[in-house]
Structure prediction request, 232 residues.
Amino acid sequence: MNVLIYDTEEQIGIAAGNYMCGQVLAKPNSVLGLATGSTPLKPYNHMIRLYEQGAVDFSKVTTFNLDEYCKLDVEDKNSYHSFMHENLFVQALLGDPAFLLFDEPTVGLDPEERIHFLDGNAADLEAECKRYEESIRAAGGIDIQLLGIGSNGHIAFNEPSDSFQRWTHVVSLKESTIQDNSRFFNTIEEVPTQALTMGIGSIMQAKRILIIALGEHKAKAIKQVISCNVTP
Prediction:
C-alpha cells in the first residue's frame, strides 16, 4: 500500500488524474473502474484537461461504473449515468442541466461499445448483477479501480455489514449514506433507498486500486484502512 498525502483537493485531482491517465498511456485499451460523487470530480476534470491537450487518448478504453441507484430514471440529474456523462463522458450540455447530449463523449469514448453502467431499473435486478459481472470478465477484468470512501467506511455502496458481499448485488442504503447523499437532492425523501453495486470481491479483482479520501470526516475510515484493520 502506498499512501500519499496532499494539502489541497486540487493537488489530489492532478495526482489522481495523472495516475489514471498513466494507466491509459501504458495500456491504451485499459479497462477503468470509475466512481461517482464529489470525490472524483477534480481527477475527472484533470483527465479531460489532459485529453484536450492531446496528452492521452481514451478511444480504446473501456469503463465500468461502480454502482447505480435503483428506481431512478437514468436521465435524472442524480443518476450516476447522468453524473458520468456530465462530468467525464459528455462534451456539451443543452439548456436544462438535466438534459444531456449523450452522443458527444468528452474523452473520445464510444458510449455504446465502451461505457458500461448497471441498470437500476432492470426488471430482474439479480440477473442484472450477474450480467454486469459477466461483462467485466468478458472485458478482461478491471485494470485500475478508482474509489472514494464513505464517512462510515463504505466503498461503492458496500455498506457496513456482518459479512463481505463478494460480487455485484442489490443493497439497502444505510441512513448515514442517505444523509450524505441527500445534499444532491432537493429533499432527503427523494434519495433512493436501494442501489446496485459492485461487491468487495468485484472491486478486489482489479489489478490496481486508487482510493481517494477528502476531508476530516473521512479520517476515521482511512485510519482503519492504513492500519489494515479492515472489517465488513
